[in-house]
Design goal:
The chain has 186 residues and is mostly beta strands. The protein contains 2 helices and 7 strands; from the N terminus they run βββαββββα. A hairpin with a 2-residue loop joins strand 5 and strand 6. It is globular. The chain binds decanoyl-CoA (MFK).
């Protein structure tokens, strides 16, 4: 079953920045302590990202045993987090911080522990501060691996925000952001 998701008629596709590094280039973590992509977050998911063609990016997630929900399978919240991170990272080309406003996931197939998931995410278009994104996940290694089968899909609305969004939490930050609002690559 798929959720309802309607793209507005007045969508604009953003241009890639002139210094976009091109398909295959790694995308650095936006914040080292991020649960999704941080390289200094031992409790986190340590997702790895690369730029793809155009506005698409690819994220990889090792489905570790600690991500278990039902016996043997990934927890739905972990998969939702992976999509949130991937679709947020797809917004990196805007060179502005974004936060998730709305995310909806279609859990199409069960995903066993030990899988390697590939998530492809992209910006579908923007309207003012609203950034419409979508993504799909496939199991590319491990049990049930089949790169032709989409095991989950996601649609997400992100909003560009200013530094004041993060300033409100400056007294609670765990770690030292490399930029004032922790989005160190934007
Ligand atoms: C590039 C860096 C890479 C980053 C990767 C990070 C990945 C992880 C991302 C996250 O998980 S962020 C954490 C989860 N999200 C949050 O904590 C956000 C909490 N919510 C908020 O702070 C505010 O609700 C939000 C900033 C999202 C929106 O508040 P605003 O006051 O800025 O929005 P405003 O009310 O001015 O609405 C602007 C437009 O967005 C629309 N909008 C806002 N929230 C919406 C919503 N939830 N659903 C649908 N539409 C929404 C709103 O209708 C309006 O549309 P129009 O321009 O057409 O008038």
């Amino acid at each position: 079953m798929s959720g309802t998701w309607t793209l507005p008629d007045d969508l604009t596709l953003p241009k890639l920045p002139d210094d976009h590094p091109g398909a295959g280039a790694p995308i650095p973590s936006h914040w080292s302590k991020c649960f999704g992509c941080g390289d200094d977050q031992p409790a986190g998911m340590a997702m790895q990202f690369t730029f793809g063609e155009g506005l698409e990016i690819t994220g990889m997630l090792d489905v570790a045993n600690r991500y278990q929900g039902g016996p043997g399978f990934i927890h739905g919240g972990i998969l939702s987090t992976a999509f949130d991170e991937a679709q947020g990272m797809a917004c990196m080309v805007l060179r502005r911080p974004v936060v998730t406003g709305h995310l909806q996931i279609d859990f199409a197939k069960p995903i066993p522990l030990g899988s390697v998931l590939e998530l492809r995410a992209r910006i579908d278009g923007t309207v003012r501060r609203k950034v419409y994104t979508s993504a799909e996940a496939r199991i590319v290694e491990g049990p049930f691996a089949d790169p032709d089968v989409v095991v989950a899909t996601s649609r997400g609305l992100f909003l560009t925000v200013g530094a004041q969004h993060f300033d409100r939490a400056k007294d609670f930050v765990d770690g030292i952001p490399r930029s004032p609002h922790g989005t160190s690559s934007v």
